[in-house]
TrEMBL record:
The lineage of its organism: Bacteria, Bacillati, Actinomycetota, Actinomycetes, Micromonosporales. It holds the Pfam family BPD_transp_1. The chain crosses the membrane at residues 59-78, 90-112, 183-207, 214-232. It comes from Paractinoplanes durhamensis. Belongs to the binding-protein-dependent transport system permease family. This is Taurine ABC transporter permease.
Amino acid sequence: MRLRWATIALLVVAWEVACRTLVRSDDYLAPPSEVLTTGSAYLAQPDTVAALTVTTTRFLAAFAVTALLGVAVGLALGRTGCLVPAARDMMTVLYTLPLVPFYPLFVLWFGLGFRSEVAFGAIHGAVPVVLGTMAAASRVDETLITATRAMGAGRTRTLTMVVLPATVPDVVGSLRIGAALSLLGVLLAELMVSVDGVGHLIAALIANLRGPELDAVILAVCVGAVAVNVLLQAGERRLSRWREQPTPSAHRVAR
């Protein structure tokens, strides 16, 4: 932990020195001291707070769709043996496609504004969640599945009572990737066609050559993304504790 914070401090000092000596005429890269003063004051303005709130709302909506849709589709595909290879190939191809050229279609389908930006963010994040959940569901111990079905459980009950609990740690891990990509999709949509939100704010700051304010907004977005990732990582570790505990048979073998 100390090494991590020392590395960050070193990077901040290098950033300050570079801005004061090497790139003094740069209109975009402001020194950290100026970002801390001018940028912090800009972040406290009502218009900036409103833009951050709008983008946060869109991200939370997109991530909710990502989590619900991605996990549901991934579980269904992961437990359908004959469709797993074809579904995995299809999702992999979709994952590699650049989705930015398709944004006009989202505007055409959902209209300009909240719905199209949420949908664009959700499609960015849903694909890796589907892939991660599908892979985790396909690795569930078949003995558990057979025993559950022998007790009279149907497909839906098997998925919710056996498959989902067994895949939760892996699902949370894939949600970390999905959260980052959902935020990226929302920001891209706002940068392309939007009249509000952080993306629109960043485009305006770039056009007006306001470096300290631009860096402050970008850092605020990065801090928010790191906070979401830390929360999901903590949840992943908490849900993975049972995997690290030795089984009674392992204790007997050790003895």
